[in-house]
Amino acid sequence: MAGPMRIRAQVNGDEVNVRALMAHPMETGFRKDSSGNPIPAHYITEVIASVNGKTVLTAEWSGAISTNPYFEFDVKAKKGDKITLKWIDNKGESKEETVEVK
Amino acid sequence: WSLTSNAEQAAKEAEQLYNLPPFGNVSLLHITDCHAQLRPIYFREPQVNLGVGSMAGQVPHLVGEHFLKHYGIPRGSIEAHAFTYLDFVEKAKLYGKVGGFAHLRTLVKRLKASRPGALLLDGGDTWQGSGLSLWTNAQDMVDACKLLGVDVMTLHWEATFGAERVKEVEAKDFAGQIDIVAQNVHTTDFEDPVFKPYVIKNINGVPVAIVGQAFPYTPVANPRWLVPEWSYGIKDQQLQAAVDQARAEGAQVVVVLSHNGMDVDLKMASRVTGVDVIFGGHTHDGVYQPVVVENAGGKTLVTNAGSNGKFLGVMDLDVKNGKIQGYRYRLIPIFANLLPADPEMEAYIAKVRAPYESKLAEPLAVAEGLLYRRGNFNGTWDQVICDALIAVRGADIAFSPGFRWGTTILPGQTITMEHLLDQTAITYPWSTLTEMTGAQIKNVLEDVADNLFNPDPYYQQGGDMVRVGGLKYAIDPNAPMGQRIQEMTLNGKPLDPNKKYKVAGWAPVAEESREAGPPVWEIVAEYLRAQKTVRIKELNVPRIIGMEGNPGLGL
Amino acid sequence: VHAARQMENAFQAKKLEEALQALGAANAAESGDVVLTAPDIAENGAVVPMEIESKLPNTEAIALFIEKNPNPLAAVFHLTPDALPRVKTRVKMGQSSDVVAVVKAGGKYYMTKKEVKVTLGGCGG
Ligand SMILES: [Mn+2]
Ligand SMILES: [Mn+2]
């Protein structure tokens, strides 16, 4: 279910632009399957971004974020820094990925 | 007042069209929205092209006499015929067919000879619109554009051949010859550019940037599943960045080759600075002279060059000291009888048509009256399609999309399969038959009406109102979204919001509707063969509310 | 490092006003320093790009609401001084709606809104 996370980190002066694609169904809980039964909610509730282990940004999401979420932001960082993204969903599943800024 | 002297007069008048003294040192030739019409055709301009809000009564929302008055064109002249619907049948018989790539090439060659270094820009909607282009997977048009000498193009309907096909043509057929530019198309994953945003060409020592703007709502107006990994949009900020970057690279002239549609281009010209000219298409408006738009950075000229191969736009710029000092613009109608066919192009067209000639020539019926499509609400051609859908599919109501392409047939002309495909040849031609409640039907009409009459052009998609068979209604274009459609009746009875009706249609954009029913041309062909002579019982147009005196409404 | 979910009440709200209230942003002032970039017409209601940038100093948080969604609050972003006040994501929209972006800066709330149209599609020139 929780597939790989794709992250791009691009240096731009003393900032780094981070773009991430996460693999997640992001089920809202409002949909029904073909036989009319509600599809249970299953979505990412939190995303934590950190630079070299220090949290710089956290996001709280609802099921309104699109399937396989896209998340872009900029942080103060430089070449060689390690940028980590971690998500946690409403079922308690989580995924973490780290990239080094090149 | 004999027909002969009339024709001689016409010839004289028309020859004047093609005698165009050169001006300045940078010339850009522009074609757009030819919709795969390789050979001359008839094409009637709209009688209804309403502008609402701030667009009311403004170019391009002028038709007939209002158009002629605005530009000072005499009624009855060859230009009056080319640019308006007035006296259409009489004048079409007199002046003959328009467009055709062989005739166009003759004019392009003449102009390029008198204007060394001139570029030919193609605004898109080039590959789609004929049976031949559908059957050859657009190869007929790809090769025709190379032979014509197109230098740069942007896109709309091209995408309905699928993303892979577009990229294949770009990489193989067009390599080293035709640049595809589109600053507003990005991948759906990381938003990487799909095409070059612009190219810079040196014209007589002047660096000229041509920035591309593909039709921003391609995945809305056409099936998204054909370009699942491409995302479009208007993207003013990115356009500004592209213009600034081109200037920084030394471009002295920056033009945008746009498929936004005229109203969107006019708004964009007021917001984006540093653009000298927007060469526009999509809304098929034959705009006689550019509209000059003022913005924070100066002025931008906005043009639109009609459709169906009928016109060639010629922009001559005088560039000195890194700036445009003056311009001359002409939108020249192509009259096939008055421009000799280029033999090389004519031979090419004959060759590419040969395997399909007998299929295209199949006679289906005779048209009793004029068959045309263009106009905000309905055309007689669409009425035939709606009548056929109702009759053949056994529906209560028919919907036919408000496409602006589609050629015209004169009274008494034989309708061939080629003519029918001129109205219907798309890569998702399936007919549909669905049950819809009265409320759902109103919802569809309201949705399309807002795409046409939203007072903010960025919320419009271009195109015309969906054509409706069976159902009668009234429309108030000035009303807010959800309140424009009124007085809906079927067979004299008010439409019941809760009752289900059988609705036939075609050109579904949803992937689930692939192969839903036979291609629409099969249905219309069956109907036409049975009719033998096509008679329009009644052109079903809505009652239009609140538009009295609007110069976009012809009488 | 694990940030607890702080805004559960706001996420459960079914009306925009209630969601703003739950966030403490009911009196957010309209501001040109909150820049919301979203398409005028969504090309796919299931994937509508949204970018919010704050030009206000000391931006602490950014929130995004889709008025006509069953739960209007779509996302809240908590920023430290090491993150720049700009975020971009993609959201689901069931129908045409106003989209509201709220920024918390220096303890105060600011907002802007934009209409995004979700259409049935078809037609064209
Ligand atoms: Mn178009
Ligand atoms: Mn077109």
In short:
The complex is a heterotrimer of chains A (102), B (555) and C (125). Chain A has strands at residues 6-12, 15-21, 44-51, 54-61, 70-76, 82-89, 94-100.
Summarize the structure in words.
The complex is a heterotrimer of chains A (102), B (555) and C (125). Chain A has 102 residues and is mainly beta. In chain A, 0% of the residues lie in helices and 51% in strands. Chain A has a single domain, classed as Sandwich (Immunoglobulin-like), CATH 2.60.40. In chain A, the strands form 2 sheets. In chain A, strands 4-3-6-7 form a 4-stranded antiparallel β-sheet, with no helix packed on it. In chain B, a hairpin with a 2-residue loop joins strand 11 and strand 12. Chain B is globular, with a radius of gyration of 23 Å. Chain C is mainly beta and 125 residues long. Chain C contains 2 helices and 8 strands, in the order ααββββββββ. The relative contact order of chain C is 0.26. At the A-C interface, strand 3, strand 4 and strand 5 of A face strand 3, strand 5 and strand 6 of C. The complex binds manganese (II) ion (MN) (2 copies). One manganese (II) ion binds next to loops of chain B.
- Segments of chain C where pLDDT lies below 50 for 5+ residues? none
Low-confidence stretches of chain A: none
Strand ordering within the main sheet of chain A: 4-3-6-7
Major sheet summary line of chain C: 5 strands, mixed
What is the chains' assembly state? heterotrimer
Q: β content of chain C, as a range?
A: 35-45%
Note the run of SSEs of chain C as H and E: HHEEEEEEEE
What average pLDDT do the residues of chain A reach?
A: 95
- What is the overall shape of chain A? elongated
- Radius of gyration of chain A (CA) equals 15 Å
| CATH fold label of chain A | Immunoglobulin-like
Corresponding CATH superfamily of chain A:
Immunoglobulins
Count of DSSP strands of chain A: 7
The shape of chain C, in one word, is: globular
In total, how many beta strands of chain C? 8
* Domain count of chain A: 1
